[in-house]
Amino acid sequence: MAESRRRRRRTAIAAAVAAVGLTAGLTTGCDAVNKALDCVQTADAIADSVTELQQAVESASNDPTQLEESLDSIDKNLDKIGDKTDNADVDKAVDDLTTAVDNVRTAVKNGDETPDLSPVVDAAGELTKVCTP
Fold first, then answer.
1. 129: number of Cβ within 10 Å
2. For 57-71, how does the pLDDT look when each residue is reduced to its tens digit (9 = 90+)?
3. Using CA atoms, how far apart are residues 11 and 5, in angstroms rounded to an integer?
4. What is the C-alpha to C-alpha distance for residues 128 and 133, in angstroms, rounded to an integer?
5. Distance in angstroms (rounded) separating the CA atoms of residues 73 and 67
6. Which of 50, 97, 113, 132 has CA atoms 20 to 30 A from the CA of 77?
7. What is the CA radius of gyration of the chain?
8. Comparing C-alpha atoms, which of 50, 40, 57 is closest to residue 97?
9. Cα(first)–Cα(last) distance of the chain, in Å?
10. Cα distance between residue 57 and residue 62, in whole Å
11. CB 104 within 8 A of CB 117
12. Using 50, 70 and 90 to split pLDDT, how confident is the model at 4?
């Protein structure tokens, strides 16, 4: 009878350890999925901001503030991604897009009414690619 109790106790302990391990694994997996979803959602928002930026450049003579607002929107979303990821590829894509946005901002401040947006578009595309799970 004592052997039977020990066996049940071992089985219960093994089951508890397995449950804790499984829960930890699932939580870690969920965190990774949540981070990936956050990255995708924010990358999508950045893509929208890049589209708005392109439209703002086209209509800069009508409303120059739209250009600055679009650049600010991209910066804000880049900060969100940067805060939520520890992925080296995502970090590089964020850095590249930040540099491209800074270059456009500098060009506009220097009087360029039609800055080259292709580096921004390319960097946004790369960010979207690395954020896709």
1. 11
2. 887 767 777 888 888
3. 10
4. 10
5. 10
6. 113
7. 24
8. 50
9. 53
10. 10
11. yes
12. low
Q: Which residue has the tokens 């049940």?
A: 8
Per the rule left: phi > 0, alpha: psi between -120 and 50, beta: everything else, 111 is left
Q: For 20-24, 51-55, 62-66, which range has the lowest pLDDT when averaged over its residues?
A: 20-24
Residue 96 clears pLDDT 60, i.e. is over it:
yes
Tokens of 2: 């004592």
Check residue 42 and give its pLDDT.
74
Among candidate residues 52, 82, 81, the one with its CA nearest the CA of residue 69:
52
Give the whole-angstrom CA distance, residue 108 versus residue 64.
Answer: 10
Q: What token pair was written down for 128?
A: 């979207």
Tell me the residue type at 80: K
* CA separation for the pair 14, 67 (Å, rounded): 61
